[in-house]
């Protein structure tokens, strides 16, 4: 029971790391980035490439891989999303186009990674990060990578939450999310804020990807897609764009899925996320934590 | 009539003409198809991309190797096999489209894709066109009954269950738990219908089976669940990255017992788990160090061609499928190869006791002798390589 | 002579044509809602529901036509109920909810073993479907969808997509229109699924998964979502390309992905728009040569 | 001013979250009159038009037409009942030509009927297309745009686009026409022309509500006017009376050049309710 609670907290931290970037992009820029999962796997792949033949230590690897993931997402923003935002005035058309671009990008990134890895699962060698298990009495225990994931999730969550509340960039993001036109008129460089946001979103996916590559044992291209579907549930439950909502719902969903796997019919595990998406959208479409009222047009 | 309605109506007219004209002509003229002298065209509808591309690419590699060997050795006289690859994209519709194009072409035989849905949907096309279809890796029980032109060469786990059960019992393991991919047709059926009863029969207590969707990647909670009750062994009937991920999760959560699995752990799938996967055992139809002469020859050829890679069961599967075909052709003499002669050759080959392939002595089993069976081998994974534990016998499951 | 060559071409490409027609129906199911500004991908879930319903009824001994009709009726009913629940959601939220619905159908199909055969799916479905019924259905769908995008009715849907508050002030009951498009989409998806099952005799729960959602969306986006003709174009291209692109081999999906990025960014109207622009080019050039100033002021009425 | 009011707004209030867009606004428009609505940016004029055209729901108060409560009506029903409007910004659909745009306004009866029957019953389609076309041609003639029926709206000069918008509103022969700053951004000459058109329509008996910034315009065409500020009606009566009202003068002088910002926030509101839930909500 205690062990399963620890498992749920670790899993929730993984989901938090993964879904914060996605929430940021959707909440501020209306980009539902389906390439987020592919970028996440891409970071794991970079980690694998950096560590398989060399002795590059953990921290530099983490930084390089996260930056690479950020760069890929930034490239996507500069090549496609920016153009769409400028040229497609109708929001509905722009959203659809950006979604489709991200599907295409997910395919391209996934194909490149799977070619480089001969379509097999890959993982950094054990020498990249040696894992130890600490016993907490009885059969209950926790490994150092699990602790690292939880700590990283807390740091990232708090930093992002406070950053958006208190910094100049954070204010710009909030203004952009509320009303892009006015924000532009107020003298905010929307293009730069959008680029920074997408880079940050990608880098967060990258951070999650590196940690997961070490934690899981083996990543493959499909791994990203599976996390993506769970992350959708997190965004919907937490309220799109709400950083705190995403964090709370990440842990809630982790708890729910862990409970289903541990004590329920585990083969229905995927159903938890999908059902939550459906039920939330029907009952409380603004999410559990959004403050403003959801308007029906 | 408005201009816009013309397009669909023109389509109707066009297809109506075509359909009327073809009602008599569409009966496949397959039997009379004959290759230009000296070449033997065949088509492999392969999962080159998509879900099981990791399988498809290896089977293609093995098949190409066999074609090179056969063509250069003069095994078929001056005649040369010409292999075309058609990508099924791991999807039923594309597979059927490709198979239809293949049976329309002058191919004298076709090789089918790996996924059971694809295999089931494409085989009737081959059967109708009266062209031999050698399915690769298609395990579905509904596949062979589709017709007399349908053959298959597959490393069916069903065949190897006895090897695993025997080894579990031999190690003196009293209890086990099995986790299986609940959305995988083959694995879920095998676990509940075969592994559990056979293990119980061998005196191994099955403490429980747990189904998980194959989309699962984070296994810590599952590992905790599997460990409860301290089973002496845990069986993994899962695919892809779930193998190394489950092993990693189990070992990191402190499980000390034996972990065993099934053939999808082959082809380097366990590499990501590193040392943690040592001692993991499973059964496959080929491993690098098989002692048979024909296997050594394949291994050597493979190493020459791909010096940096390790040959695995999927490579051997493609190689053997092509070898089976070549033997059938050679048994029909040196005349022109037709679709009919390929079928006759296959029947002769089945009656004459099979052939020697990458996986060893291979025989034709099943009700109409269309199921090509290899001996198989139980291997243990240790330090990044498969080590032979026990050699199998072809058609083992028939004897049970 | 010509007829004979057409016939032999047809005989050799029948499976290709069948697949194109089935995918066209599926693509229509996505196109019809996108055109109405309803970002629903529920058609793929109904593809699964339709294929299971028709196949299971047929295996129970029902005749072909009633089996398909029953599947369609079930889908109308379920589609209507789902529309009641979901139609108030907009854009990405609706997309998300319908994707969740599709995947949920897959999860249920995998786990409700008693009804659906579980992960093994349904096999040995009688192969009762020929090309002609599929073809007639597809052509019928094209004609009806053509009607749906013509005249005031067609423009009303366009108004809803482009500017919903405006549509409301033009007396268009937008929720009723959206509802309607949603149900039509469900029926088209259902038909595609039912035909697929009866044509190939096998269904697996994974048939209508995330890959199919992406494929259907790709077809519509690559072809052009504003018209059924775009969806048809996309279905033809994506069904036929794998046959032609053997040279790219394992890079096939990379080509698709790249194509999607390029089209969505630079050509939102899809290839159909590009094709139309190309066809209009000679006429426009002629006009330009005659009187350069007249070009800006005239515009052709769009179909 | 003796005729019974066609439209009455009583104690209307609208709140968006914590923002009061209208607080207790009162308005009465008698049949056949041309009523001006003035006020600085952000005073609630557009919100009031949105309320009358039913795009915005009242949070308090009542809305009556011919003495009947119409606040429960949806926007499409309101249009079918004869309330037509134009928007502050041009909202013509760029994918259709001018005629097709105006035809949408002339098919309000068709648009209210069953979609399935409209789709599958050829006589009804043909009939609707024919009557909508006729109505559209008449309306285009009425605003002097008949010659441009097959032009693309975006190819027309701004003033003409606004005329097309008025034609689209007229095509359904409404009983009440709401005009939200129809002359914004027009040249002096164009404004005069639109003013003439409105007066002509009034002579034909069409009741109109004109939202306008320009007091001279109000003065020239309207019978009476209401001035709004902070969501309240601060003055009403004849145009001279309203123009002379000290409160109105103060509001105008005080906010006359209050800058782009307020106007834009009003524009954002005017485009109808947001189509998605709240975003970053910190």
Describe this structure in words.
The complex is a heterotetramer of chains A (297), B (400), C (303) and D (282). Chain A has helices at 2-29, 36-52, 58-87, 91-116, 144-166, 168-178, 180-185, 190-216, 221-238, 243-263, 269-283; strands at residues 133-135, 141-143. Chain A has 297 residues and is mainly α. Chain A has one domain. A two-stranded antiparallel sheet of chain A has the order 1-2. In chain A, helix 1 (2-29) runs antiparallel to helix 10 (243-263) and helix 3 (58-87) packs antiparallel against helix 8. The model of chain A is unreliable at 291-297 (pLDDT under 50). Chain B is α/β, with parallel strands linked by helices and 400 residues long. Chain B has 2 domains: 16-155 and 291-374, 3-Layer(aba) Sandwich (Rossmann fold), CATH 3.40.50.2300; 161-284, Response regulator (Rossmann fold), CATH 3.40.50. In chain B, helix 4 (116-128) links the parallel strand 3 (109-112) and strand 4. In chain B, helix 2 runs parallel beside helix 10 (313-331). Chain D is built from 12 helices and 10 strands. The N and C termini of chain D lie far apart (52 Å). Chain D has 2 domains: 1-82 and 175-282, P-loop containing nucleotide triphosphate hydrolases (Rossmann fold, 3-Layer(aba) Sandwich), CATH 3.40.50.300; 90-173, no CATH class. Chain D has a 6-stranded mixed sheet with strand order 6-7-8-3-9-10, with helices on both faces. Helix content of chain D is 41%, strand content 22%. Classes of the chains: A mainly alpha (297), B alpha/beta (400), C mainly alpha (303), D alpha/beta (282). Chains B and C meet through helix 1, strand 2, helix 3, helix 4 and helix 6 of B and helix 1, helix 2, helix 5, helix 7 and strand 2 of C.
């Amino acid at each position: 029971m205690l062990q399963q609670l620890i498992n749920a907290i670790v899993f929730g931290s993984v989901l938090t790391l993964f879904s914060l970037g996605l929430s940021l992009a959707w909440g501020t820029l209306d980009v539902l980035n389906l390439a987020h999962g592919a970028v996440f796997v891409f970071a794991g792949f970079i980690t694998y490439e950096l560590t398989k033949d060399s002795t590059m230590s953990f921290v530099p690897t983490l930084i390089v891989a996260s930056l690479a993931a950020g760069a890929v997402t930034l490239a996507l923003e500069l090549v496609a999303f920016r153009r769409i935002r400028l040229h497609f005035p109708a929001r509905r058309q722009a959203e659809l186009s950006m979604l489709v671009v991200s599907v295409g990008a997910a395919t391209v990134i996934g194909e490149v990674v799977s070619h480089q890895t001969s379509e097999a699962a890959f993982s950094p060698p054990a020498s990249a990060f040696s894992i130890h298990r600490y016993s907490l009495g009885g059969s209950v225990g926790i490994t150092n990578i699990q602790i690292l994931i939880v700590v990283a999730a807390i740091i990232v969550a708090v930093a992002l939450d406070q950053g958006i509340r208190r910094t100049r960039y954070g204010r710009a993001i909030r203004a952009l999310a509320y009303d892009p036109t006015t924000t532009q008129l107020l003298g905010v460089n929307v293009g730069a804020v959008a680029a920074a946001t997408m880079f940050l979103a990608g880098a967060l996916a990258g951070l999650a990807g590196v940690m997961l590559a070490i934690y899981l044992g083996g990543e493959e291209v499909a791994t990203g897609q599976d996390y993506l579907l769970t992350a959708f549930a997190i965004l919907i439950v937490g309220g799109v764009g709400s950083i705190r909502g995403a964090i709370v719902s990440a842990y809630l969903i982790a708890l729910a899925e862990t409970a289903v796997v541990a004590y329920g019919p585990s083969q229905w595990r995927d159903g938890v996320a999908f059902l939550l998406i459906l039920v939330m959208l029907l009952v409380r479409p603004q999410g559990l934590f959004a403050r403003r009222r959801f308007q029906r047009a | 009539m408005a201009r816009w309605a013309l397009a669909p109506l023109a389509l109707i007219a066009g297809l109506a003409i075509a359909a009327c004209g073809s009602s008599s002509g569409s009966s496949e003229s397959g039997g009379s198809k004959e290759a230009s002298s000296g070449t033997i065209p065949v088509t492999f509808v392969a999962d080159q991309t998509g879900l099981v591309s990791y399988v498809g690419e290896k089977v293609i590699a093995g098949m190409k190797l066999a074609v090179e060997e056969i063509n250069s050795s003069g095994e078929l006289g001056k005649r040369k096999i010409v292999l075309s690859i058609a990508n099924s994209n791991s999807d039923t519709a594309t597979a059927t489209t490709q198979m239809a194009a293949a049976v329309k072409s002058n191919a004298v035989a076709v090789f089918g894709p790996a996924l059971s849905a694809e295999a089931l949907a494409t085989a009737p096309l081959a059967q109708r066109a009266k062209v031999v279809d050698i399915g690769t890796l298609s395990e579905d029980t509904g596949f062979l009954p589709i017709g007399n032109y349908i053959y298959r060469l597959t490393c069916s786990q069903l065949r190897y269950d006895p090897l695993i059960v025997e080894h579990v019992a031999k190690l003196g393991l009293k209890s086990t738990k099995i986790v299986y991919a609940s959305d995988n047709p083959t694995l879920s059926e095998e676990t509940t219908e075969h592994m559990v009863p056979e293990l119980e029969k061998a005196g191994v207590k099955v403490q429980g089976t747990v189904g998980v969707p194959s989309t699962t990647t984070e296994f810590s909670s599952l590992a905790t669940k599997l460990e409860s009750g301290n089973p002496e062994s845990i069986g993994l009937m899962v695919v892809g990255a779930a193998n190394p991920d489950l092993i990693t999760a189990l070992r990191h959560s402190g499980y000390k017992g034996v972990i065993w699995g099934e053939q999808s752990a082959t082809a380097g799938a366990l590499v990501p788990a590193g040392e943690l996967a040592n001692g993991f055992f499973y059964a496959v139809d080929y491993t690098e160090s098989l002692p048979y002469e024909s296997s050594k020859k394949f291994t050597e050829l493979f190493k020459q061609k791909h010096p940096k890679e390790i040959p695995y069961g999927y490579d051997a599967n493609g190689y053997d499928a092509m070898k089976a075909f070549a033997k059938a052709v050679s048994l029909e003499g040196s005349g022109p190869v037709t679709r009919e002669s390929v079928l006759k050759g296959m029947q002769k080959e089945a009656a004459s006791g099979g052939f020697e392939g990458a996986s060893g002595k291979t025989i034709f089993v099943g009700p109409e002798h269309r199921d090509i069976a290899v001996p198989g081998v139980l291997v243990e994974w240790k330090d990044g390589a498969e080590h032979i534990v026990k050699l199998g016998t072809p058609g083992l499951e028939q004897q049970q | 002579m010509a007829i004979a060559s057409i016939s032999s071409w047809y005989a050799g490409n029948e499976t290709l044509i069948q697949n194109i027609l089935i995918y066209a129906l599926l693509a229509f199911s996505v196109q019809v809602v996108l055109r109405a500004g309803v970002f629903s991908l529920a058609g793929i879930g109904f593809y699964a529901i339709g294929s299971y319903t028709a196949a299971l009824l047929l295996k129970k001994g029902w005749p072909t036509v009633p089996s398909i009709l029953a599947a369609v009726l079930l889908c109308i009913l379920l589609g209507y109920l789902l529309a009641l629940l979901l139609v108030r959601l907009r854009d990405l939220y609706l997309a998300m909810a319908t994707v969740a619905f599709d995947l949920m159908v897959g999860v249920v199909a995998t786990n409700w073993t008693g009804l659906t055969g579980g992960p093994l799916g349904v096999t040995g479905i009688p192969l009762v479907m020929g090309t002609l019924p599929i073809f007639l259905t597809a052509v019928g769908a094209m004609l009806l969808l053509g009607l749906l995008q013509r005249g005031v009715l067609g423009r009303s849907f366009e108004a809803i997509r482009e500017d919903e508050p405006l549509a409301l002030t033009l007396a268009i009951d937008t929720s009723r229109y959206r509802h309607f498009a949603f149900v039509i989409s469900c029926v088209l998806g259902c038909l595609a699924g039912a035909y697929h099952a009866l044509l190939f005799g096998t269904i697996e729960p994974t048939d209508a998964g995330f890959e199919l959602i992406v494929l259907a969306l790709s077809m519509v986006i690559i072809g052009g979502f504003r018209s059924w003709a775009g969806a048809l174009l996309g279905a033809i291209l994506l069904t036929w390309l794998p046959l032609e692109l053997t040279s790219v081999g394992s890079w096939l999906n990379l080509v698709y992905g790249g194509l999607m990025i390029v089209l969505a960014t630079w050509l939102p109207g899809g290839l159909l728009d590009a094709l139309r622009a190309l066809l209009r080019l000679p006429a426009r050039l002629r006009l330009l040569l005659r009187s350069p100033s007249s070009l800006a002021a005239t515009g052709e009425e769009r179909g | 001013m003796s005729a019974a009011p066609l439209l009455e707004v009583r104690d209307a209030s609208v709140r968006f979250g914590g923002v009061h867009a209208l607080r207790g606004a009162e308005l009465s428009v008698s049949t056949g009159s041309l009523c001006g609505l003035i006020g600085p940016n952000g005073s609630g004029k557009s919100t009031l038009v949105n309320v009358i055209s039913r795009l915005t729901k009242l949070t308090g108060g009542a809305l009556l037409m011919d003495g009947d409560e119409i606040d429960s009506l949806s926007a499409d029903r309101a249009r079918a009942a004869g309330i037509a409007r134009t928007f502050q910004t041009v909202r013509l659909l760029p994918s259709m030509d001018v005629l097709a745009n105006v035809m949408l306004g002339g098919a309000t009866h068709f648009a209210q009927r069953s979609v399935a029957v409209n789709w599958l019953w050829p006589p009804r389609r043909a009939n609707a297309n024919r009557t909508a076309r006729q109505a559209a041609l008449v309306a285009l003639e009425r605003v002097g745009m008949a010659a441009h029926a097959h032009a693309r709206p975006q190819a027309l000069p701004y003033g003409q686009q606004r005329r097309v918008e008025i034609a689209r509103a007229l095509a359904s022969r409404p009983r009440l026409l709401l005009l939200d700053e129809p002359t914004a951004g027009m040249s002096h000459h164009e404004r005069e022309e639109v003013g003439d058109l409105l007066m002509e329509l009034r002579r034909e008996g069409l009741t109109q509500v004109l939202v306008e910034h320009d007091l001279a315009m109000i003065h020239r065409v309207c019978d009476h006017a209401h001035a709004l500020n902070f969501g309240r009606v601060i003055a009403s009566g004849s145009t001279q009376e309203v123009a002379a009202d000290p409160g109105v003068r103060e509001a105008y002088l005080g906010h006359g050049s209050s800058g782009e910002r307020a106007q834009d926030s009003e524009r954002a509101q005017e485009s109808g309710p947001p189509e998605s839930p709240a975003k970053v909500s910190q």
